[in-house]
């Protein structure tokens, strides 16, 4: 009886080498390396091609020239779209594939390079003591739905050939340092397409199957499903699909309100899907369509061509796109110690570990990979459910701002004409009244930023710290959300900010900058 009981335990605890219900696919080491190299090369090509058009067309189709010469790929060595996730790989190499999200956030916080939007907020949150996963949640991050994790998620698919559940699981752990809801789902969607592209070269199947790894009721999935449905209605006219997506989803960017600039993951993910579907597996067509959709053209183009690179393999990328890569293959990406060759090699090491951890094995010069079905596991999360931008009031409208103490006017200039109100006087205050369910106060963080106590409806809400190691807040599309509160009862509310005597020990002053406040409401 004891022997029988022991046998039963072993059967349940120890996985069998091959289960009759499991599906395995064989792929040679050489082909795997070719596909991973293709993914990285595709990303380099796409980001270099789309760089000059980045945000040149916001809320409209880009109809200008989209030039290409082989040496343009050299520009990819300086692109944050690549060195950002390569930096994450460096941390993972040091601490292991299962490195904690907090350790990755620490690395991102202390990295030399500048950051924007969700990644910047992740850094600021870490420095303020707000750790993952809280750092990605909408309570602490108005950029939770931004594109950042979508940009940085490629390599998580590269290391998960045929294993979209594995890539989604890693994404779910890592992506939470800067994202939540649709921002997280964007990274899962992109990495899943990479994972599936190792064994599928059909763009419509790739997009459709990758969608199965995120909740179907999420607004991200609904947006991509709109792309698929419009593609079926207009299979030869991508601009009609673009028009539908722009009209329905073009004004959903919470972090840059009332602006054609859109860094929301949904619509940029939709543009990637449009590029893949209408590009029909062709590098030139895919890039031209993706870039033609506008907004974050270099990020979107690099994601799309990275997927094609995995699908086709490096050896099948046309020479006119890759011919210059060998000459720079050992040059390091900016802010990293990784070159193209080193990045490919390290990706292979991570892939080898990940495949084995998920039931695969090596057989001579081949991998036997345990294929995973794309599916979503978990609960639906949405960052800003049913929330919409109601109105905003700039500092130029002095009748709406009750300023006490010494405040002065400040204008950045250099392309940013908006008026800020600035004070460095402890005890100075500002009071606003707003009607809605939430509000965000936009301003600037800086090396001499101070602290302030914020009260909502007469109750202390939070002490904010506007110190940051460099300027962050210049330009309307990059304002800092110095304070926000959501989920209030619908009605009229007050916000009262008082500059504190206290300041961050690293700060050079007590300055507080405010440029506008934005009021949000909730659809019933």
Report on this model:
- The chain has 2 domains: 23-371, ADP-ribosylglycohydrolase fold (Orthogonal Bundle); 387-522, Galactose-binding domain-like (Jelly Rolls), CATH 2.60.120.260.
- The strands form 3 sheets. Strands 4, 6, 7, 9, 12 and 14 form a 6-stranded antiparallel β-sheet that branches. Strands 5-8-13-10-11 form a 5-stranded antiparallel β-sheet, with no helix packed on it. Strands 1-3-2 form a 3-stranded antiparallel β-sheet.
- A hairpin with a 2-residue loop joins strand 10 (451-456) and strand 11.
- By secondary structure, it is α+β, with helices and mostly antiparallel strands.
- It has helices at residues 2-13, 29-50, 80-95, 101-110, 117-127, 148-152, 154-158, 164-174, 182-197, 203-210, 219-233, 238-249, 265-279, 283-292, 297-312, 319-322, 325-328, 340-357; strands at 23-28, 361-363, 366-371, 387-394, 402-404, 408-413, 416-423, 429-436, 438-444, 451-456, 459-465, 480-485, 491-499, 512-522.
- Helix 2 runs antiparallel to helix 15.
- Mean pLDDT is 95; it is low at 1-20.
- It is 40% helix and 18% strand.
- It is globular, with a radius of gyration of 24 Å.
